[in-house]
Structure formats: C-alpha cells, structure tokens
Write a structure and sequence with these properties.
mainly alpha, elongated, single chain, Alpha-lytic protease prodomain-like
Length: 205
C-alpha cells in the first residue's frame, strides 16, 4: 500500500522518541546534582546557572513525556509553559549573576573546566539523539532548543573557567551566567510564539 494510504505515525507517537526523552531526563537529572555540588565547591555562578538549567531540562523532558501521553492540544500547551519557564530562568540567572558580581570573589576554575567538559559531553549525546526531531511540533522544537542551548552553555562555562584562570577575577564567570540568561530569554518567546500558532490552528479546526 502507498504511504498516502498508511502514513507513518507522527514523531510524537514514536516509541524511539519517548525512549530518548527518558534517557535525556535521567542524564539531565544526574548532571544537575553533579553541577550543583561543583558550583558549591568552586563558587561558580556559571556552574550554578547551568545546574539550574539541567534541573529545568529534566522537568521539561518529563513534561514532554506527559504531553505525548495526553496528546492533542496538551502538546502545544506544555510547550507554551516551557517557553514561559525559559524566560523565568533567564531572569533568575541575571539576578544571581548580579549578586555574585556584588560579592566579587572569583570561583575556582579547575573544577569549573572539568565539570563543563563532562556536561558538554552529556548534552552533545542528548542533542545527537534528538536531532532528527528538531523540526517537529512546538513541544519537540522546545526540547531541541533546550538541548542546543545546553551545548552552547557548556562551551561558555568552559570559556569562563579559562577566563577566571587567566584574570583571577569573577567577571568571566558572571559574564557567562549573563549569556546563559540571554539564551533563555531569546528562546522562550520563540517557543511561546510557535505554541500560540499551533493552539490557534487547533481552535479554528
């Protein structure tokens, strides 16, 4: 029979996609605890921001799994909420970075660098698994954007570690924390806009 008669299942119903989300959820949850401990040891605001991002991503992957199970408009509604969470994350990181800048104490760069490399490897693996789903519905798009942003964030944290090592100041660490905030603030509205379009189409259908 032709593909027109029997179209393939939508990606959201793909069992492989659900398995990837479970892998991503547990990997991000584990890295949250690793980076949280490392941020306390090193005093790095960039690592703390990245740890919060890992925690948020764990919740996002869990929400995505729930949205897939519920189906329909819930997929777009969950994506909308995740877009709002990205914006809230960005604002929270900006506040924390400002506090670290006021304290002025530089973090320990070697822990920062080692943990950022580990985080980069984890997120690169997750992003590779999710790559084929990057152009799906709003929920899939939000998951992909989170994974892409995480890779950029990990590279930025490593650069901050080098900057702290070279300058002996807090500013590279705080600057990267601000960059992570900007990523959330930029991606959140894009996810919200995509979700609104999908919800509008469903309302008119």
């Amino acid at each position: 029979m032709s593909q027109d008669c029997c179209p393939p299942s939508p990606p959201a119903a793909d069992g492989r996609y659900r398995r990837i989300l479970w892998i991503a959820l547990w990997a991000n949850a584990a890295m949250f605890f690793v980076e949280l401990g490392a941020s306390v040891i090193s005093g790095s605001s960039a690592l703390a921001a990245d740890a919060a991002d890992f925690l948020g991503d764990s919740a996002n992957y869990g929400a995505s799994l729930g949205a897939i199970a519920l189906g329909g408009a819930w997929v777009s509604r969950v994506a909308y909420v995740k877009g709002v969470a990205m914006i809230a994350y960005g604002l929270g990181v900006l506040t924390y970075a400002g506090w670290r800048a006021w304290l002025g104490a530089p973090p320990e760069p070697y822990t920062m660098g080692a943990v950022s490399i580990l985080a980069f490897a984890v997120n690169l693996g997750v992003a590779a698994l999710l790559y084929r789903y990057r152009a799906g519905d709003a929920n899939m798009r939000s998951v992909w954007l989170c994974s892409r942003n995480d890779i950029i964030a990990n590279a930025a944290v490593f650069a901050a570690a080098l900057g702290v090592l070279g300058t002996g100041t807090v500013w590279p660490d705080v600057g990267v924390a601000a960059v992570l905030a900007a990523l959330g603030l930029a991606s959140g509205p894009a996810v919200i806009a995509h979700a609104r379009v999908e919800l509008g189409r469903r309302a008119r259908a």
